[in-house]
Design a protein that fits this description.
The structure holds two protein chains of two kinds.
Chain A (H helix, E strand, L loop, with lengths): L21 H18 L9 H23 L9 H16 L7 H26 L3 H19 L9 H6 L2 E2 L4 E2 L2 H16 L2 H10 L1 H6 L4 H27 L10 H11 L12 H19 L5 H34 L1
Helix pairs in contact in A: 1-12, 2-7, 2-10, 2-11, 2-12, 3-4, 3-5, 3-10, 3-11, 4-10, 7-10, 8-10, 11-12, 11-13
Chain B lengths: L1 E10 L2 E11 L4 E5 L6 H8 L7 E6 L2 E3 L4 H6 L2 E4 L11 H5 L9 H18 L15 H14 L4 E5 L7 H16 L3 E5 L3 H7 L2 E6 L2 E7 L5 H9 L20 E9 L7 E6 L3 E6 L5 H9 L6 E6 L8 E2 L3 H6 L2 E4 L3 H5 L6 H6 L7 E2 L2 E2 L1 H14 L15 H13 L5 E5 L7 H16 L3 E5 L3 H7 L2 E6 L2 E7 L5 H8 L14
Parallel strand pairs in B: 3-8, 3-9, 6-7, 7-8, 13-20, 13-21, 16-19, 19-20
Antiparallel strand pairs in B: 1-2, 1-4, 4-5, 9-10, 11-12, 11-14, 14-15, 17-18, 21-22
Classes of the chains: A mainly alpha, B alpha/beta.
Bound molecules: adenosine-5'-triphosphate (ATP) and magnesium ion (MG).
Adenosine-5'-triphosphate binds next to strand 2, helix 1 and helix 14 of chain B.
Chain lengths: 336, 507
């Protein structure tokens, strides 16, 4: 080779985006939607849509509520999301209503604030006392769960008037009003993104030391992440109230694991740093569609858990095999 | 501008610093020198607020300060590039560059940030780095460029570079140093740490030496040469630049490694060649011109676009075609990777555990681990590379150079017949480098074949029997020991080969 020969430039730099982890969940959701429509032709009909939406929204918001804590890394996880839904439901029915705080513009913000406050407590202990998130939020889980039963040993069959209003719809069933809560949650997230907060959470979750040495206040960001998650859980609690139109201490806790499952299904890294809310929302939709499909097929509800679990395992395996190409090389070097 | 006096810091029983002092005036470039583990990085961390000193004071612009976190020092204009490459791999390049600056930005501000980021990256790197891709998709050198760019974007008053040049190739190093000089002429200052003597001599206005956590001396630009610096740093009589005493051939003529019609990329020239037992072959070139890929092809970590690699390590020269890494290892190859943070070590494990991990089987009898045997083996190889750190210490807490020693020694412990090394002297101090060269030469004399990628011209000239210089994805020149001079090597980096055509035998 002579010096004059033009040599090809080195390979393109930094353009190789990993294939989207959303791909799997989008395909699965689409298939399930079709399956549901086949089994139940009226699945999306206006008379059923409000009920369907009502069922979906608390799960979707619970999934969103789990996102910030997981994204913030360091073993971040908020197990207390489920019981927090329950506590918000009970406070709305058993404390705010008797106190005469039934107006939507008063009690809805209060419920969201309550969620944010509980999230902030979790966040403070995780970020400033530096205890393991899984232990801290397990503690909160038990406290909230117990508290809910103390406040309301028996289900109470009344709900504030805004709950009834939110369970209605516009446009003859095509626009269920319960979706407003989901929209509110998404707006909250978009706001956090626009303020640059989400980027900070990702940075902290991605490499906390790099963030720290770049001048990011790691503790404060983690704290904020849990508080944001709490606020979203507050919205989810409102959605739960809309759904059951009453107060019930036993429903909330079931949402914790379903929410984590939805986040994992959505392709967010459980180790933090990677992902947004689109994936977890689709993940929640997947879980929801499986459930409605199985109940339409009159499969025993006992099987639903088994199916949920299997789908979760399958999806996570597929996701990781997509994302593993880079990681495998490093593993090979160590494993030899 | 900034002065530190009498700083001490102990990590448990380890005294990283006991009496370190340093002053930097605006407009000057100060080099901080010291052997591995002498406390340079710890001093840098004290300066930048990551580590709180046990004693001593920091004076900034005549006022004593006690920084509580990097945030404080960044505000004061002290910007540090740490020895470890600290990036948030999941964020985009752009987000990484502005990480820690005010998060919320107006639209116009965002556009300005993009433009500034582009500008600084282009100053540093001749190859454009995409702003919107994730940092995890970049290679080590590009990540290092990002970290440096992040620092430069903050318009530092004092820029601290802790071995920031160690992953950069010659062009980038020069670009960076030119930029640093430009900023210092405008009134900033720089403190930089490097184990590369040529670089230090070329760029620093003043030298400060640390030994065992104590500032032992200071030299101005004038009157400093390599020997005085080495003496200052090591406290011993300087050994003159070594030139290997080994003679090329020494009776071992057995071919061990064979490469035929190998193309790294579809567009590269095919390469043929053989390597004999006991040879030391150097791979060189500007970063990204194929030498890294070539080494990985040899190791079975990457599939060449065409051709094959055969390891003749079996009895009577029986050959194994390298198809993958596992198989190459079984055939007696060992590969020391480059990025120790992600490819080489398990940080939380102890030094001893890291050392023994790949060779655990040798310490076992009947499936049980022999502790004494393991410890003895560790001692032998630790001595071999002169690793003095306590065996029980977690690797993350070792100094950068000592980490490198652990890694090199663990692969030596395999007693491979072909040893591939990817820039093993990066971040290793002068004395240790010399020792490592000795180790490699001894290994070669015992018949081990060594192929080593190096970014250091001195060692390519002094150590190698032959140097393969890569350019544009092909081997552009092959320099024998007798022909390898600094000038020829560097001109070959830029594609002005020694007339070797692609298909010519590498002998
Ligand atoms: N976090 C820590 N915990 C325990 N020991 C530490 C820690 N950080 C550094 N040390 C020890 O302090 C000493 C000084 O380390 P330091 O990293 O400052 O050395 P260095 O001069 O930067 O060396 P190198 O040239 O290899 O980078 C070493 O013995 C190291 O093992
Ligand atoms: Mg260091």
């Amino acid at each position: 080779m002579t010096a004059a020969v033009a040599v090809p430039r080195r390979r393109a730099v930094g353009l190789r985006m990993p294939r989207s982890p959303l791909a799997v969940v989008v395909v699965v959701t689409a298939c399930l939607l079709v399956a549901n429509l086949v089994v139940t032709p009226g699945f999306l009909a206006p008379d059923r849509l409000p009920g369907t939406a009502e069922l979906f929204v608390p799960l979707a918001l619970a999934a969103m509520a789990s996102v910030p804590s997981i994204l913030s890394g360091g073993g971040g996880l908020d197990l207390s999301v489920g019981p927090l839904l329950g506590i918000v439901n009970i406070v709305a029915v058993a404390i705010l209503m008797p106190a005469g705080l039934v107006a939507a513009e008063v009690s809805i913000p209060l419920c969201v604030l309550l969620g944010a406050a509980v999230g902030a407590i979790n966040g403070a202990v995780v970020a400033f006392v530096r205890l393991q998130p899984i232990v801290v939020t397990l503690g909160t889980y038990l406290v909230l769960d117990g508290l809910a039963l103390v406040l309301m040993p028996q289900p109470v069959g009344t709900a504030p008037p805004w709950a009834a209003w939110l369970s209605g719809s516009w446009l003859g069933g095509f626009a269920p009003r319960s979706l407003l809560l989901l929209v509110a949650g998404c707006l909250l997230w978009v706001l956090a993104r626009r303020l640059g907060f989400v980027t900070l959470v990702r940075a902290v979750g991605s490499d906390a030391r790099a963030a720290f040495t770049s001048g990011v206040r790691v503790g404060l960001v983690r704290f904020g992440a849990y508080a944001l998650g709490g606020a979203l859980a507050g919205l989810a609690g409102l959605a739960l109230t809309v759904l059951i139109n009453s107060g019930d201490a036993t429903v909330g806790p079931q949402y914790t694991l379903a929410a984590v499952a939805a986040v994992a299904l959505g392709g967010n890294a459980l180790s933090g740093g990677r992902g947004g809310i689109a994936g977890p929302l689709l993940g929640a939709l997947t879980l929801f569609l499986i459930q409605s499909l199985l109940s339409a097929l009159a499969v025993s509800s006992l099987w639903i858990q088994v199916v949920h679990g299997s789908v979760l395992l399958a999806a996570v395996c597929i996701n990781s095999s997509i994302g593993a190409r880079v990681g495998r090389r490093a593993a090979a070097i160590q494993g030899g | 501008m900034l002065a530190v006096r009498g700083v001490a810091k102990a990590f448990g029983p380890t005294k990283a610093l006991s009496d370190a002092s340093l002053a930097v005036r605006s407009g000057e470039v100060v080099a901080l020198l010291g052997e591995n583990g002498s406390g340079k990085s710890t001093l840098v961390k004290v300066l930048s607020g990551v580590v709180r000193p046990d004693a001593g004071e920091l004076v900034l612009d005549g006022r004593p300060v006690r920084p509580g976190s990097p945030r404080d020092t960044l505000r004061a204009g002290i910007v540090t590039v740490y020895q470890e490459i600290l990036v948030a791999p999941d964020l985009t390049v752009l987000d990484n560059l502005w990480l820690g600056s005010a998060a919320f930005t107006e639209r116009s501000e965002r556009a300005r940030r993009r433009a500034r980021a582009r500008e600084v990256l282009d100053v540093l790197s001749p190859d454009p780095i995409a702003l919107d891709g994730p940092v995890s998709a970049l290679d080590l050198m590009q990540q290092q460029v990002c970290v440096i760019a992040q620092a430069l974007l903050r318009d530092p008053r004092l820029l601290v570079l802790d071995e920031a040049t160690s992953t950069l190739d010659v062009t980038l190093r020069d670009r960076l140093m030119a930029e640093v000089r430009r900023r210092c002429d405008e009134g900033a200052a720089a403190l930089f740490i490097s184990h590369r003597m040529d670089e230090v001599l070329a760029h620093a206005d003043r030298f400060v030496a640390l030994r065992g956590g104590v500032t032992v001396g200071e030299l101005p630009r004038s009157g400093a040469d390599a020997e005085t610096l080495v003496r200052l740093v090591s406290g011993e009589e300087a050994t003159a630049q070594r030139r290997s005493t080994r003679r090329g051939g020494h009776g071992l003529q057995r071919t061990v490694l064979e490469v035929s019609q190998l193309r790294i990329q579809p567009s590269s020239e095919p390469l043929d060649g053989i390597v004999r037992a006991g040879e030391i072959i150097g791979l060189a070139g500007l970063e990204g011109h194929g030498q890294d890929e070539f080494l990985q092809c040899l190791a079975g970590l990457r599939r060449p676009a065409a051709g094959e690699v055969v390891l003749r390590t079996g009895p009577h020269g029986a050959g194994t075609t390298v198809r993958n890494y596992r198989q190459a290892v079984r055939a007696g190859m060992a590969y020391v990777p480059r990025n120790r943070k992600t490819e080489g070590i398990a940080g939380v494990l102890s030094n001893l555990d890291n050392f023994t991990a790949p060779t655990l089987r040798r310490d076992a009898r009947l499936g049980l681990l022999g502790r004494a045997r393991r410890a003895a083996r560790y001692r032998r190889f630790a001595e071999f590379v002169n690793l003095t750190a306590p065996p029980g210490k977690a690797v993350v807490h070792l100094s950068g150079g000592n980490q490198q020693k652990v890694i090199v020694s663990r692969w030596l412990a395999r007693e491979p017949s072909v040893l591939l090394l990817n820039d093993p002297t990066r971040g290793v101090d002068l004395r240790t480098k010399q020792e490592l060269y000795g180790v490699l030469e001894r290994l070669a004399d015992q018949g081990t074949t060594i192929v080593m990628l190096s970014t250091e011209v001195e060692e390519l000239i002094g150590l190698m029997d032959r140097v393969l210089v890569f350019h544009g994805g092909s081997c552009a020149a092959v320099l024998d020991r007798s022909e390898a001079t600094r000038e020829r090597l560097v001109s070959a980096y830029f594609g002005h080969g020694s007339g070797a055509t692609g298909s010519e035998e590498v002998r």
